[in-house]
Amino acid sequence: MSEPVNIKFNTGVATPQPTQQTIGATIAESTYRYDALRDADVNGLSSARRPTLVTLFGISECGKTTFVGSLFAILCRHPQLLKSTFVDSDTLTGFQRRVHTRYLSEKGLSEQPRTQRRAGSILNVVLGDEHGDNQRMVVFSDLSGEVYNDAASKDDVALQQKAVKYADKLVIFVDVEKLLPTKNNAYKASFQSLLTRFKENDMFTSETEYFLVFNKADLVANETDKATEGIEDESELKKKRNEITDRWEQRKQSVLDIVNTLVTVSSDNIYEICSKGIEYGKEDAMLIGLFNRLITEKTPASLSPEYNWIQKLVKEK
């Protein structure tokens, strides 16, 4: 692990500053200033009160990185929707990478850059209310989906993920694209294995608030449109729509049956979203509602000067 760095707020404009490397060599992921932090680097974060830790949880390609990129884009261009003011961040470059990932995915210009296993995964923002007052820090863990893939079958990998165990809010992502097809048993088996591995290693605690997010939910509507194209008879149209709706509800219930045996998720904490749904003036209402829930402090609390909250995240007691 790298040595801890001491990162302070308001240190200047987040201009990429690559490390010195041999001419012609490829610059490694996370070698820029203000990029996402690795666990060992997080101890430099400082806050007047306990930050809220939000952990994004799910196997690869479920849309976690696109999700956090969309959140940052909303905070920058339309923060009124979140009743917040963006004040500062130590990880501006890390967020911008994710905004770019979201853009590529939305435009279909190329394959999404994957969040690398060894890349920094910790992002933070300092937010104020609509007037910039009552400032608080929110820390996001956007761990590589490939790490979660590994954790599904390896106890040691699961046990290393302290951001899961000590999360204030843990967002479990379900990939609707992989759930919709008839042949979805392999995906559901991987999803169940992941949850089971963390549960059996006591990584889920009663102190964490859990959210279940069905991401890429717009694909359900797309499937309905495709299946009903050319049908003019109203009764036949209604029948086909109900058929697809019923099939989707069955798919969704199959996931709920898995989750409910392993983690307690309130019905109010279950969302169907499209993480790309941030077109200005046409934002996905469910997505914005979820963003608001995640950036709201769970239990505001002061911190004593000697208490280094992040040590709990990155080190064994």
Describe the structure.
There is one protein chain. By secondary structure, the chain is of the alpha/beta class. It has a single domain (39-298), classed as Rossmann fold (3-Layer(aba) Sandwich). It contains eleven helices and seven strands. A seven-stranded mixed sheet has the order 2-3-4-1-5-6-7. α1 packs across α2 and α8 packs antiparallel against α9 (234-260). The longest helix has 27 residues, at 234-260. The chain starts with 51 loop residues before the first strand and ends with a helix. Mean pLDDT is 81; it is low at 1-31 and 303-307.
Counting DSSP H or I runs of 4 or more residues, the number of helices is 11
Q: What level of helicity do the residues show?
A: 25-40%
Structural class: alpha/beta
Describe the global form. globular
CATH architecture: 3-Layer(aba) Sandwich
Q: What strand order characterises the main sheet?
A: 2-3-4-1-5-6-7
Unreliably modeled segments:
1-31, 303-307
Instruction: Give the N-to-C terminal Cα separation.
Output: 18 Å
Order of SSEs, N→C?
A: EHEHEEHHHEHHEHHEHH
CATH C-level name: Alpha Beta
Radius of gyration: 20 Å
Tell me the CATH topology: Rossmann fold
Number of domains: 1
- CATH evolutionary superfamily: P-loop containing nucleotide triphosphate hydrolases
State the total count of DSSP E strands: 7
